[in-house]
Amino acid sequence: MSTTPLTASLIDLAARGQLPLHQHMDHATITWISDHRPDLPPTPTPALRPQSKELLAHGGMPTRWWADPRLYTSLHGVRHAMRTAALAAVLAEANGLDDADTTTAILAAAVHDCQRRHDQDDRGHGARGAVWLAANADTVWGHFGLTAMPRRIVQAATAVRLHDIPYEEFEAANKADHARAERITDLVKAADALDRYRLPKLKWWPDSRYVREPAFDQLGELAFDLVLVSEQAYLAGASGPAAVRYALAEKGLV
To answer: Which residues, including other chains, have CB under 8 Å from residue 181's CB and lie 6 or more apart?
Structure first.
């Protein structure tokens, strides 16, 4: 029988190597995150195109999209999804992506973790997410007021499939798929990595060595603030989507 108290914080559980399958933010952990704010260079105020702002405003995806509804409010739930989509939008501007590629990256980022089964190292959730996205493309694009196009579905699904596979582990098929959706895949992987400030160990926080994105280190302050503000708002009683929208509005992203 576990002797871990039910009230143990994520930082305590992480230190003991006892993180549960389903991990939810708590007051002690967000205080620890705030206290460990890294020395980050200021992020220039991002200027998003109107279409991106509109997509982010629709980012509160429904619970039924998640494979396990318990994950909707967890560390890999809707708040992570919405922040990752916002960071994808910012990275798209930094890289000069056109409207179509930007939209594809935002949508892929929004659903990249929805087929996770738990919050631990769930290898294969990207592949499951890609299959789910392809099967539910009309629903996903329709949620954002868009029409799903075959080429964009393939690109988004590719980014979702590859997001949880380290570059050094790419096999031949992965490399071929990556080549067909390189910019979108690299951007989604980087956006996902930027949101790691929510995790309860410093060694799990963002590290540019694992991504292929020149603007990665420039966005650390923005990524940290989005985590801190939205998680504090959530713990204060806001819904997950409302908490992230508040943080996005504070940063001028919606």
So the answer is: 154, 155, 158, 159
